[in-house]
Amino acid sequence: MSKNLTKRAEDYSKWYNELVVKADLAENSGVRGCMVIKPYGYAIWEKMQAELDKMFKETGHSNAYFPLFVPKSMFEAEEKNAEGFAKECAIVTHYRLKNDPEKPGKLMVDPNAKLEEELIVRPTSEAIIWSTYKNWVQSYRDLPLLINQWANVVRWEMRTRLFLRTAEFLWQEGHTAHATKSEAIEESEKMMHVYADFAENFMAIPVIKGLKTETERFAGAEETYCIEALMQDGKALQAGTSHFLGQNFAKAFDVKFANQEGKQEYVWGTSWGVSTRLMGALVMTHSDDNGLVLPPNLAPIQVVIVPIFKTDYELGAISKIANELLNQFKKIGISVKFDNRTTQKPGFKFAEWELKGVPVRIAIGPKDIENGTFEIARRDTLTKDVVSADGVVNYINDLLKQIQNDLFNKALEYRDSHITEVNSFEEFREVLENKAGFISAHWDGTPETEEKIKDLTKATIRCIPLKRKAEEGKCVFSGEKSTGRVLFAKAY
Questions:
Q1: Which residue(s) pair with 332 in the sheet?
Q2: Does residue 48 contact residue 278 with C-beta atoms inside 8 Å?
Q3: pLDDT digits (tens, 9 = 90+) for 2-53
Q4: DSSP per residue, 297-312
Q5: Sheet containing 90-94, strands listed edge to edge, beginning at the edge strand earlier in sequence
Q6: 473 neighbors 442 (Cβ within 8 angstroms)
Q7: Is the N-terminal amide bond of 111 cis, ω within 30° of 0?
Q8: Confidence band (pLDDT; 50, 70, 90) for 350?
Q9: Helices (H) and strands (E) in the chain, counts
């Protein structure tokens, strides 16, 4: 199997696009800016979804589903949110087509089927959900309301890239209502920590927890918490956000509750979400010039067994051993595939599973059976070992854990070596052009300076780290007083 992938060092963007398609994750569709997620790609998303869903339920959340369409007047109720998403909205104006009398076989919009009120195709669901919460919340006994939905949303992006930015994408969005401000803030922070836990322990991606600046904050939020990751090309990627909404949506949709003294108060809200953009992060953090590299905790197939044979008799003997292995692996929860296709040679299969990022490969031939050993290949390091057949199951169980840890540590080492402190704008530009990664710099706290730096360098403030040290200094651009460093980077 010929991979013919562009090298990352030559053109990182082209390498990424080719890999997503050739590894059977996704492809462009017949709809501009929309993608088809193929079965192998969707299997990875399903594993992500399953783990996140478990984590949400363990923190007390329940799943529900809300409509795809939002009446325009309802969408406009929270002004900042509406303004923030206005340019990305798709709008339904009519509900019927009819035959075009001037063009046989063609359809046209029926002018008599105009909607009384236009419908927005949800770019996010705060409006429809908070209008519903008005009916669900009457008393403090109804709180907290902890709801999540798995859904699709539409944001009419002009420049699209598979998984990273598409006009329609899959995601989850949590929306919670609370009796007090402190409870809502605690919820916002808790979900940021849940996302960080998932990114690091399942995706093997180290992240920095922080706050967005006012300019980068979610439209309609009082505070946005985020986790930021660094890709192999030195660009940052926002891997998840959690928003403290204050009482903005409660006031816009009149969501009140009677407190224990019987007085009416507005509830306090949060919203939080991650999307199929995480698939892009997974690809870009670990993969190499040979194809995908998947962390075992999210790999749909963790182990592939490839038989090496010349005759049907040899295949029969190998199949007997392979099926015994299949049963042993399945008993301890390891997903395994026996690739017994007779239409492809072992070399083709090796290349295919390497491209698809299967963490561990077992090759079994007649000599292996004779010697009582198997050849074990690691996808992440492309190294091989010969292991005794008797201990192979335990060996691979430990190896999968080792690979998961090694991938995280490799990404962490890269990330940490690409956080650079600078103290002047000249240094800032030099690092941005020649090294990339996160730039730790003093900022005067004004949106004006933030915007000027963005205009001049294309770098944005990715976050104000939660764990930053108190350190007085001078803004790298304006020279004005600063109380701490923030992280800048070019980003996806």
A1: none
A2: yes
A3: 578 999 999 999 999 999 999 999 999 999 999 999 999 999 999 999 999 9
A4: TT-S-SEEEEE--SSH
A5: 69-71, 114-121, 90-94
A6: yes
A7: no
A8: very high
A9: 14, 27
